[in-house]
Design brief:
21 strands; cytoplasm; SH2 domain; alpha+beta
Length: 498
């Protein structure tokens, strides 16, 4: 009975969002239950225990508190930094995962919880960074980091993008099964091969490898399997006698190298590395690799994650979707009697009128909210007739006077998925703006020019064919319509201050 109750609670915890303290309680139940069922017979009534959860978040074990490890009873300080360099100190329990900490930071920072936030392990001295997987324990990762390393809190739209667009992540010429059979494998079958431990998928292709302890790089043919990373000593041969073992997946993590050319003399900009978990700050233990293009690097790094974590990644991906489905059943707000007696009113004319159309009422509410935000941010900034020129300043997708290189860096950091975008002030034309958009892992720039008609200034990115009174209208239009762009605007590239 006790085992069944605990299992039910764990399923509930995985399918909906819980406050970290409540989630911690379930984790305690689960760990302690497993310990008892593994080491003691529940058939003996003298060995049953009672678990009490007090206000001080401590475990009270009347019978076996001496022998059961209280792995979740202590807390530790963690400092997390945002993109602006400012940090936030939080006290978290030892059992808190990266997903839980991200949700806590989203709550404290009043961000939109769109399941795209990530905790990044950043090593500035080595020029390395990686996004923690949602199930990883933050304290455990912090224990393996050097003193100069830190956690970053940022968006990562590409964390599970390979589950949605598999074909863009795994080119056929890099999947061994496609090359050997000369056939195209369906995306669902390809993912199933990666997730099933009984299958043996393989990624292959040329990579540049940095010789350990040297500055030179050499181009060799590589094979990535569940057992590890191998290189061929004879061309593209995969015979066992020609394969040389390079790195293990189980006790290593894969990182993006952010200063490859400058720090390591990499031949291209698409460097990544395999770092042993025991390595804290020694660059000699790093296995430096470099791909020909961004698609190749993404393929190798994604395959590494799938080989190492397998079905756990899919479970991490599904939990927010299941939570969204569960919460959709309770999406209708419970209104009080006084709220039900309210009606929508329009006071734009000389007299007020009741808005009976629900769609019109919703539109009016959105316009009123938008107008309130404008008044809130611009009340003491400028006169009313200058609003179209500065109304975009408070938007999350507007980044002001950043450089072209800085916009590339932000897009790279947040995932390079289709539709990731930001707006910035043009460097060549101070009166114009630039839309920076990612499509097919390539970054493109579109200039937004002001044009005047009948004394009013409009904005357009298609030479005046489609004009907008402000940049907010422009962005909202291209979020719904592709127009002259290669894809719709989907994901705003945003920087949050903790």
């Amino acid at each position: 009975m006790g085992r069944y109750m605990i299992s039910t609670m764990i399923v509930f915890e995985e399918n909906c969002w819980l406050h970290p303290s409540i989630r911690l309680l379930f984790q305690k139940w689960f760990v302690l239950n497993d310990f008892i069922t593994t080491n003691y017979s529940l058939r003996d009534p003298n060995k049953l225990f009672v678990l009490l959860y007090s206000n001080t978040s401590t475990l009270v074990l009347p019978n076996y508190h001496e022998i059961i490890p209280n792995v979740f009873s202590f807390t530790q300080i963690v400092k997390v930094f945002s993109e602006d360099g400012l940090g936030k100190v939080v006290e978290i329990p030892a059992g808190m995962t990266a997903r839980d900490l991200c949700q806590l930071l989203v709550y404290k920072s009043h961000c939109v919880d769109d399941n795209s936030w990530a905790l990044v392990e950043h090593h500035p001295l080595l020029g390395l960074e990686r996004c923690l997987e949602d199930h990883e324990l933050v304290i455990q990762v912090q224990a393996s980091m050097s003193s100069g390393s830190r956690f970053l809190f940022r968006k990562n739209y590409a964390k599970y993008e390979f589950f949605r667009n598999t074909h863009t992540f795994f080119p056929e010429h890099m999947v061994a099964w496609c090359q050997e059979t000369n056939r195209t494998i369906p995306p669902s079958q390809l993912l199933q091969n990666f997730l099933a431990t009984s299958s043996c998928p393989e990624i292959q292709g040329y990579l540049y490898v940095k010789d350990v302890g040297r500055k030179s790089w050499k181009k060799v043919y590589m094979f990535l399997r569940r057992s590890g990373l191998y290189c061929s000593a004879k061309g593209t041969s995969k015979e066992p006698r020609h394969l040389q073992f390079l790195a293990d997946l189980e006790d290593s993590s894969i990182f993006t190298v952010i200063t490859g050319k400058k720090l390591h003399g990499a031949p291209t900009d698409y460097e990544f590395c395999i770092k042993p978990n025991k390595c804290r700050g020694e660059s000699k233990e790093l296995r430096m690799l470099c791909a020909e293009d961004e698609q190749g690097r993404t393929c190798w790094m994604t395959a590494f994650r799938l080989f190492k974590y397998g079905i756990v990644l899919y479970q991490n991906y599904k939990i927010p979707l299941q939570r969204k489905t569960l919460l959709s059943h309770f999406s209708a707000p419970v209104r009080s009697v006084s709220e039900n007696s309210l009606v929508a009113m329009d006071f734009s004319g000389r007299i007020g009128r009741v808005i009976e159309n629900p769609l019109e009422a919703q539109s009016a509410a959105m316009e009123e909210g938008h107008a309130w935000r404008v008044r809130h941010h611009l009340l003491y900034i400028c006169p009313l007739f200058f609003l179209p020129a500065v109304i975009h300043i408070a938007q999350m997708w507007f980044h002001g006077r950043i450089t072209r290189e800085e916009s590339h860096r932000l897009i790279h950091q947040q995932g390079q998925v289709d539709g990731l975008f930001l707006l910035r002030v043009s460097q060549s034309n101070p009166k114009a703006f630039v839309l920076t958009l990612c499509h097919h892992q390539k970054i493109k720039h579109f200039q937004i020019l002001p044009c005047e008609e009948d004394g009013q200034v409009f904005f357009s990115l298609d030479d005046g064919a489609t004009k907008f009174t402000d940049l907010i209208q422009l962005v909202e239009f291209y979020q719904l319509n592709r127009g002259v762009l290669p894809c719709k605007l989907k994901h705003p590239c945003t920087v949050v201050a903790l």
